[in-house]
Specification:
Order of helices and strands: EHHEEEEEEHEHEHEHEEEEEHHEHE
Strand content: 25-35%
Distance between the termini: 22 Å
Helix content: 25-40%
Number of strands: 17
Largest sheet: 10 strands, mixed
Oligomer: single chain
Shape: globular
Length: about 375
Amino acid sequence: VMKLINNDEVSQVLKMADCIRVQEEAFRGLVEYGAVHRPRVDLYYPAEDTDSYFRWGSMEGASSRYFAIRMKSDIVSWPRTDDGGWTEEKHCIEPGTYCGLIFLLSTKNGEPLALINDGILQHFRVGGGAGIGAKYLSREDSEVIGLIGSGGMARTFLEAFCCVRPIKECRVYSPTMGHKEVFAEEMSARLGIDVIPVSGPREAIAGADIVSSATDSMIPVYDAAWLEPGQHVTNLGRREMPEEAISRFDVVVRQGVAGLQMKQTDIFQAERGHSPAAFIGGTLEQQHVIPEKNPSPGFGGDSPDFTDRGRGGDKPEFKDLVTGKCEGRTSRHQITFYRNVGNQGLQFSSVGGLVYEKIVASGMGRDIPTEWLLQDIRD
């Protein structure tokens, strides 16, 4: 039988330390071709509401004994607020419900093993990725986190940092009324550290050892001039970081390749909205609602430093760091940056395989007859 595994069950068996461990093992597998992944690719098609778009997203990876494809079905929009905010919002069917699944299969015999709701696992794999970057690039005595964002991703980012560094304090900022206060109370109790809500992003960043943004913002959430020597910086999205930060970083390591190296056409485009790469349907008038690629050089455009195409493709990856092909931090005063994007499919195969094994061992999950997914007609 195969397993149907929901978020509540994932939350019972998945621990951040294990999440970091299996991802690091999978990333190391890329060195000797013991792992492989296909970066995220999205497909857009006009939705019923002209201010939104249907978006299908998928990514694949194989490591150890498991292959996984993570799939998402979203209606996405990009609303602007009166105070200048600009975010990406999404839902499935109606606001507050979402459809994201991980289909896990055996690389030994092709057997379908599990369908897993992706919510909790998605937060953990991204937070765990940021933790790996902090483990290798932040100062070993890092104790203070400056965190912008207070959602589910921010929670796993902070937990991951606490797994790899002796964190004592986190200063958190969120522009959403009440969110940072709830976050501070919850995470202080969970992690046993001081989590302090602050009035602005600059107050969060000042004096921090690790600076992290974990938002859905389409525009930068802090000023590059606020970064200080010795800090380690990481991110969630491409657009939440200021372009000017490029010149502040002494060391840059990306998790892995995030986008496909393909010729840009009217159908295949890079960095529209929050998509690294996307096939886009609809008329040009309909496509206008999808945010364009940032035209300025840097995180959102064709920068030789940060794009995954062209000259930017030679930026060092995590696998280069662990094999000594590139240097990490060599001074307490350097500002390091870990681009927490790439290897997504590999994250889902490694963490998904871990969750599956724990679910089977505990007798949890709902059984689905494997024969329901098999057929006797060669396809």
